[in-house]
Design goal:
This protein is an all-alpha fold. The protein contains 16 helices and no strands.
Length: about 325
């Protein structure tokens, strides 16, 4: 009962946090103007193309996950793996990080694969994705360093805030104090909940990377690892062409927006709501896109992605029993 209450509270806390950010962004906007732009000024052809590219990225992720499962079990059917991935996306919209457990549970039931082994593959997958995102961030910083400096110089209030935070005596003193506490009480800290949590995460990441070495078709694994992120990027970038105020932006501007917005999606809120919008709007501002236009772009791009996940995830839940009906008759219900 306590676990159920905790999960319900966790859901509402995360949702409230994301909704609050979303409200802060949109509360002072001209709703009638937004409606007018959505009705008359958006080329939805590019939004549809974006969703098709998104579907391809989900297929690529499905194929990569299948490659990761092969060394620890039998090769799962593509249809079950794909449906499990989509159910995972749907569950993430309900509760952050629930999707990983959900898709492992779906595939474990329908393919008779160990749930623990599937969790191991997802840990490895998440490790690869995080490294990929950090590499993209480093690339953006290197390529767009001058543009970011220019943006800060043209927005002195933002520049001063950043410098005030970085050079804050309170922050510096806090970091020094934290280091001293860790050095003095390092033996005691090893027995704390937070240390064990961090240690377990680090251990899981290590095991995840080691497990990648057992993948038989490594070429295809790295191909899909790259393709997933290329398709994610293209999914966002083509939406630029749906608006007159963003269609002139370069592919590099699209990459910057994509990477920064992706960190918004990593935030522990359902579907990145609020956080994704904020990061995308701020990224577009670097390239001179007015906030009221960035807000509309973020709304269209994020809403289209979210609706696709809801529709495909819901259809997957409906289809799964029919796809596996024959297996149930042959092997009996999973226990």
């Amino acid at each position: 009962m306590k676990k159920l209450i905790f999960k319900v509270l966790k859901f509402f806390i995360f949702f409230a946090f994301g909704a609050f950010i979303f409200w802060l962004i949109y509360k002072d906007q001209d709703i009638e103007r937004i409606k007018s732009v959505l009705k008359n000024e958006v080329n939805y052809f590019w939004v549809i193309i974006s969703l098709f590219i998104g579907l391809l990225s989900h297929i690529s992720r499905t194929l990569r996950w299948g490659l990761m499962i092969e060394p620890v079990s039998h090769k799962p059917r593509f249809i079950n793996t794909f449906l499990a991935v989509m159910v995972g996306y749907l569950m993430n919209l309900a509760l952050p990080r629930m999707g990983e457990l959900s898709r492992c549970g779906v595939l474990a039931r329908n393919e008779k694969i160990s749930f623990a082994k599937l969790i191991g593959t997802v840990v490895a997958e998440r490790a690869v994705d995080m490294v990929s995102l950090l590499i993209l961030l480093a690339l953006v910083i290197i390529v767009q360093f001058n543009e970011m400096l220019s943006f800060m110089h043209s927005n002195p209030e933002i520049e001063s805030k950043i410098y005030s935070v970085i050079l804050s005596p309170v922050l510096i003193a806090g970091i020094v104090a934290l280091i001293i506490v860790i050095l003095i009480f390092r033996k005691t800290l090893k027995h704390t909940f937070f240390y064990n949590k961090i240690s377990n995460v680090a251990s899981n990441l290590k095991e995840g990377f080691i497990s990648i070495g057992s993948i038989r078709r490594k070429g295809w694994f790295f191909f899909h690892s790259a393709m997933i992120w290329i398709l994610y990027y293209l999914m966002l970038y083509v939406v630029f062409f749906a608006f007159d105020f963003t269609k002139h932006l370069s592919p590099v501007a699209g990459l910057t927006t994509f990477v920064l917005a992706s960190f918004g999606m990593v935030a522990p809120v359902q579907g990145g709501i609020g956080a994704w919008h904020f990061m995308a709007i701020e990224a577009l501002a670097i390239y001179g896109i007015a906030k009221h236009n960035g807000i509309i772009f973020a709304f269209v791009a994020h809403t289209s992605m979210t609706l696709m996940m809801i529709i495909l995830g819901s259809l997957s839940l409906i289809i799964l029993p029919f796809v596996n009906r024959r297996n149930e008759k042959i092997t009996g219900p999973a226990v």
